Amino acid sequence: MCDIDLYEMNEFLKRYNQHFQEFSLRFERFKEIRKQYQQTKDKKLLTDFRCYMDMLIVQIRSFCLEGDSLNKKNYTVQHFLYKFGRSDLADKINDFLDQPLYGNKDEDDSYWSIRKSIKFASDRYICHHDKLSNFEFSQIDLILAHLSNPYFSNNLDAIISEISECLLETHKQFLCHALQTSKKD
């Protein structure tokens, strides 16, 4: 682990944890709503389901896809990992986000990575109402179907699990580092 200014890291962790706790609570609620909807097919739940899904997509976008992850003003997962000297885990997340959500990587038209899919849905449909062609609307439908379906391999559950696993490993490492440093003082 790299040398860390514990005060600076503590300030970063407070803000970062606030965002991540909200994200985690929303994800748990999303799973509850999805389960209830699958059991009942109650159309009122469908609106809640879509609202939570939109929130999660936007948060994944802001947590992992905010451009330069070394920008000290943002709280991306990668920035968090770089601060802890864990570029290996940041690279692992980036590699995961470059995996296919659907399609064949060798066929440009059908291949959409997780990264491209989340950015497209967030930037062109959820956060902004860009003019979209019928084909682009069908892409949005396909992206949302894949992300929300618990039976697809790279769905929201898998994405959030991958990110959380890297964060948990880093949190444990930071706590051990902080304890060792405090014992030296």
Description:
This protein has helices at 6-40, 43-64, 77-83, 87-97, 114-126, 134-148, 156-184; strands spanning 100-102, 112-113. With 185 residues, the protein is an all-alpha fold. The two termini are 18 Å apart. Strands 1-2 form a two-stranded antiparallel sheet.
In short:
This protein is mainly alpha-helical.
Spatial strand sequence of the major β-sheet: 1-2
- Mean pLDDT, rounded to whole units? 83
Query: End-to-end span in angstroms?
Result: 18 Å
Structural class: mainly alpha
Task: Let me know the number of strands.
Answer: 2
Low-confidence stretches: none
What is the share of helical residues?
over 70%
Percent strand equals under 5%
SS field, number of helical segments: 7
Main sheet: strands, sense, barrel: 2 strands, antiparallel
Give the topology string: H per helix, E per strand. Answer: HHHHEEHHH
What general outline do the C-alpha atoms trace? globular
Radius of gyration: 18 Å
